[in-house]
Amino acid sequence: MKAAWIADAAGGDLSIRVGETDAPAHAEDRLLVNIDAVGLTFGEPAWVTNGTLALPDGSKRPLPVIIGHEFAGRVAHVGAATSGFAVGDRVVGLIDFWRNGAAAEQASVLSGEITGLPDAVSAVEAATLPIGALTAWQALFDFAALKAGETVLIHGGAGAVGTFAIQIAKGIGARVIATARGGEATGLCRELGADVVIDTTAERFEDVAGPVDVVFDTVGHDLLERSWQFVRPGARLVTISGEAEDAPSPERAKQLGIEAFWFIVKPDPAQLAEIVRWVADGRITVQVDRAYRLDEARQAFLEADSRAKRGKTVLTV
Ligand SMILES: NC(=O)c1ccc[n+]([C@@H]2O[C@H](COP(=O)([O-])OP(=O)(O)OC[C@H]3O[C@@H](n4cnc5c(N)ncnc54)[C@H](OP(=O)(O)O)[C@@H]3O)[C@@H](O)[C@H]2O)c1
């Protein structure tokens, strides 16, 4: 089958290759899915060198590693020990990060990684959800416990995760302040429903935003550090930027009287099904920045840094 993979341990965009490889084997506890679309994570080549691709026992993963962990497709084979899905079902899902991804004609998945996909949601739209939207969902609800009437400051509101975070927070009745860079990005945040939008190229968020209950940071670095100095006691600060070693210090959070979290998104079919319902009934609109073909995977990575991205980049298979 055709697939896109990380070919060498140097990592980086140049390590992406597209070619022929073996299709995944049948297994009793797995389903095989014919992939229609897969969401791209441009930081993925760096996972080779930063340890994200380690196996669960901590050992180094042998290369090549097929990229792209969020996908939409159709069930092609069901293992005897799986339940809930039949051949031909449209599905969307998130493959655990330490296994081969879905930038391929076929992928091997667990039933606990997928949920059904109604016809109302296209494969390209769906492929943006299991990392983009699910990360926003888990950050806002599982970690920040955001509630209607609260105010959330979202850093990176025009990004793949940020565009979903704005809409999900507004969807439950929260007030949203979003940061973004430049006129096009700030315009998108407004279109998505943000109540206050701050262009960080022109102003400091601290000078515009009043007290907030929650900060959801998708940018890191200076914005994250300044957010620590900005939040008030009782607030929740959630960041997804960086790696485990960059996770917020519990001691610092305790001193400030806040709660602070860093996490990695986990497959959750029930949450994903709820997100799919929100997309199907129009409560969330999906921002697809660009769709490349599987053949163009390397080109997609090479071009990523030189263009402004609004939402998610997808490969179609
Ligand atoms: N831990 C997890 O489970 C998890 C899950 C998903 C993603 N992530 C990580 O989270 C981060 C965001 O992911 P993503 O897919 O949303 O990336 P993305 O699509 O590149 O979005 C990041 C957004 O932040 C904006 N930004 C950068 N610097 C900014 C600043 N100073 N002020 C305001 N906006 C700024 C970017 O704008 P420009 O276009 O101008 O650069 C872009 O719109 C990445 O580091 C990714 O690896 C982690």
Automatic annotation (TrEMBL):
Entry-linked SUPFAM superfamilies: GroES-like (SSF50129), NAD(P)-binding Rossmann-fold domains (SSF51735)
Q: Which residues cross the membrane?
A: none
The superkingdom listed in its UniProt entry is: Bacteria
- Every copy of the Enoyl reductase (ER) domain together lies at 11-315
Write one Pfam family the protein is assigned to.
ADH_zinc_N_2
* GO molecular function terms listed in the Swiss-Prot or TrEMBL record: oxidoreductase activity
Q: Mind telling me what this protein is named?
A: Enoyl reductase (ER) domain-containing protein
Species assigned in the record: Luteibacter rhizovicinus DSM 16549
